[in-house]
Write a structure and sequence with these properties.
single chain, about 50% helix, disordered N terminus
Length: about 260
């Protein structure tokens, strides 16, 4: 349990509280929730955050907004440096009731780090001055499509679990359908009705999640593309750019030189 939830009086006194934590490779934070809204910023490393709304991929220089009361668990891919902000309910209302991944440009990054330092030093006046600009920049941040929705239908859940585990990296929809005793047409319909995206689009999200983790650990783009099931680096780069708006090489530079 975080020290912020253990000290409710302190929570009322600060509009924004903050925490810095570094986690080792593979660390798992069990399911929990906070009374405050939480912004989880990945200073380094990749996190997968699971909520009732699905799985959220949080690579370096991105942050995940989690509204108050939303249960979540976190899986660390490699070593992860996390910086967390907790917003009181009035400020949390600015960001909605659903999780979302936000891009973190240079100014926002520095504001987050400054807030973490100010809170660690119990510098109340600095927090008061930083808060309006920090909240403004968070509201202006771009939302990124780094969300993997999860199904409830047992057949579709079985297929999705296989894809998430990486054991069905290049299997076709027809092959996956045969594995769960359904037709490919039924599976395709379930992807659209339950997950609001096609099988191809959903699998691209999973491939992107794995690629982000590998790139953050220093794997070569060629290796990452092959492991993602792409025949060429150009095809992989095209998917990556379409999903994130930047090339894998540009993203790697961001990770190495944030």
């Amino acid at each position: 349990m975080s020290r912020f939830r253990q000290q409710p009086a302190q929570l009322k006194a600060w509009p924004i509280t903050a925490l810095a934590k570094d986690y080792p490779r593979g660390w798992h934070v069990p399911r929990h929730r906070h009374r405050r809204g939480q912004l989880i910023y990945a200073k380094a490393g990749v996190m997968h955050v699971t909520t009732r709304e699905g799985i959220w991929i949080v690579p370096p220089q991105r942050a995940l907004w989690i509204p108050p009361g939303m249960e979540h668990e976190i899986q660390m891919e490699g070593q992860v440096a996390v910086r967390m902000l907790y917003l009181d309910r009035s400020n949390s209302a600015l960001f909605g009731l659903h999780c979302k991944v936000l891009s973190v440009p240079a100014l926002l990054r520095e504001l987050i780090l400054a807030a973490v330092q100010a809170h660690a030093e119990k510098h109340r006046e600095r927090i008061r001055v930083l808060a309006p600009l920090l909240l403004h920049e968070l509201q202006e941040a771009n939302v990124e499509a780094l969300h993997i929705p999860v199904p409830t239908d047992p057949r579709l859940k079985n297929v999705c679990q296989r894809l998430l585990a990486g054991s069905s990296r290049v299997e076709t929809l027809e092959q996956l359908a045969a594995h769960v005793g359904a037709s490919s047409r039924t599976l395709a319909r379930l992807f659209e009705s339950e997950l609001k995206m096609s099988f191809v689009h959903w699998r691209q999200h999973v491939r992107l999640a794995r690629a982000l983790s590998q790139i953050s650990q220093g794997h070569a783009i060629k290796t990452v593309a092959r492991d993602a099931g792409y025949a060429s680096c150009s095809a992989f780069s095209s998917m990556f750019h379409r999903m994130l708006g930047i090339t894998p090489t540009h993203y790697m530079r961001q990770v190495i030189e944030p």
